[in-house]
Structure formats: structure tokens, C-alpha cells
Amino acid sequence: MPIRSWMFVPGDSEKKLAKAPELGADVLIVDLEDAVAPAAKETARTLSREWLEYMGQHYPQQACWVRINPIDGELWRDDLRMVMPSKPAGIMVPKASGPEQLRTLMAELYEVEQRSGVAPNTTRLLPLVSETAHAALTLTAYGDPANAMPRLLGLTWGAEDLSAAIGASRKRDANGVWTDLFRMVRAQVLLTAHAAGIAAIDTLHADFRDEDGLRRVARESYEDGFAGMLAIHPAQVPIINAAFTPSEAELAEAQAIVDAFAAAPGVGAVQLNGRMIDQPHLDQARKLLARAS
């Protein structure tokens, strides 16, 4: 199942929840955290549970996730208690501080799954791993084999909360390029996810009116090795989907590489269109074809 576009939908907005199935996002994330005011949390939980039930009945192929409130607070257990009977595909974990914190969540989640009639260990996790300075410094711990977690679908990161946490007044330079700190965090998320064998999901493009800028950064994200990208506005979804979809030319070249090696079993390198192609090219071609299947 593709995981190119991850679209946030406020959990307390009946109007936006009703429109969500039409957006074309690969993953819909009903948000109980930042998009919901404290006074509206309980209402958001109820609406989200009803919406998840509706989606399960009418759009069973749509991946629906829930962003709960932070694990270091008091709201997340109530979030799980309310939404898990509706069987969300996964839980996004905001302000995640490391694998040990996720283990606390997983222990609770295992118990809630049993009470909710959900098959054990089937609810996936996607932590936001960079929203505090401490989390950003320790995010590489997710790549340690000792911290392997079958529930973990991938890692993603957030520039907005991190900039607030450190008092940064800018995140990108005058040319629209991430400044050094944010570029470093992004690279660590990408490398750590690949080291752990899970998906790397890039952060959102905050200026939803800047469609040209989104096309550029989304395509760069795809070319850098990310599997998908967060979205905060419906107009961003088709742009992200297009950017993370391999072109016909890319697929044709990848298939040609695979075919060339299949025609010459046992060799380490082959010639193709005047170029020498070796095993890393073959590995990359196979991954691209698998991604498109």
C-alpha cells in the first residue's frame, strides 16, 4: 500500500472529516493533538471514533491513522481508550523522546488492543522524533538493532515544534533551503530509518500556498530517499503523490537493469546503453520496481 501523502485532518471538525475521503491521500491522520484546542479534546475523540468506524465500513482500503497527544502528558491514554475500538491502522506519536518512551506506549497499546477486539501488535506506529532538542539529539537510537520494534512503520520529523523549542526565528535560508540544524536533523531521520529498515517520512511544507515550492521540495525528498511526506492542506496531496510516484522513464530504466542482469546470471556488472551497471544499481532498480508495485 502506498504511503506517499500523509494528510492531517482535525479531529474536532465534522466538515473536514466528511471531506477527507475525497482528498486522495494515501494516509489520513485524524489529529487529536495540535489541531484541537484543550476544551475540544473530548469532542474530538468522539467524532474521531465515529469517523473511523464510518471509514472502516465505507472505505476499508483507506489507511486511517490517529495522532494522539504526547506520551509525557495525561491525555494520550484517553485518546487510545476512545479510538482503538474503531481499529485505526496506526498511531502517530508526537514529541516522541526515544525508544524507551515508545515501549511505554506499546505496553499500553497491547492491553487496549485486547480490550478493543483488535488483533495484538497490528496497530503500527509512526513517531515524530525531532520536536524537542533532546529528541533530535537521540533520534539515532531508533536505528540500534537492540531497539527494533515490529510495530514501527517509520520515522518522521517536525521542524515547527523544534524551532519553537530552541527559539529559532528561521528554518530555511533566503533560497528556501533548510538551515544547518534542520538539514542535519532531516538527514539523521533519513539515515536512521533506512538503518532500521523502516520508512522515512519527510516533514510538511508549511506554506500551503507555495505550490511551486512544494513541488520542488517534494521531488527532492523523493530523490533523497524518503518514502512520503506530511501534508496540511488538501491542495498539497496531489502534488506530493505526483512527486513520490516513479515516472514511466524511471520504471523502464529500472526494468531494463533487472532484465540485463537476468540475461547474464552470475556477473557482477553489465553494460547498458553505454554505461557500466553494477550491483548497487541492481539493488536500487529492484527497490524502485517494488515501490511502484
UniProtKB/TrEMBL annotation:
Recite the UniProt keywords alphabetically: Lyase, Magnesium, Metal-binding
Q: Which InterPro entries match?
A: Aldolase/citrate-lyase_domain, Citrate_lyase_beta/mcl1/mcl2, Pyrv/PenolPyrv_kinase-like_dom, Pyrv_kinase-like_dom_sf
Q: Name all HpcH/HpaI aldolase/citrate lyase domain ranges.
A: 4-234
| Molecular function terms, GO-annotated | lyase activity
Per its UniProt record, what SUPFAM superfamilies does this chain match? Phosphoenolpyruvate/pyruvate domain (SSF51621)
Q: Does the keyword Magnesium apply?
A: yes
Q: Which domain of life is it from?
A: Bacteria
> Which family is annotated?
Belongs to the HpcH/HpaI aldolase family.
PANTHER family linked to this entry: HPCH_HPAI ALDOLASE_CITRATE LYASE DOMAIN-CONTAINING PROTEIN, LYASE BETA SUBUNIT, PUTATIVE (AFU_ORTHOLOGUE AFUA_4G13030)-RELATED
What is this protein's name? CoA ester lyase
Organism source for this protein?
Aurantiacibacter gilvus
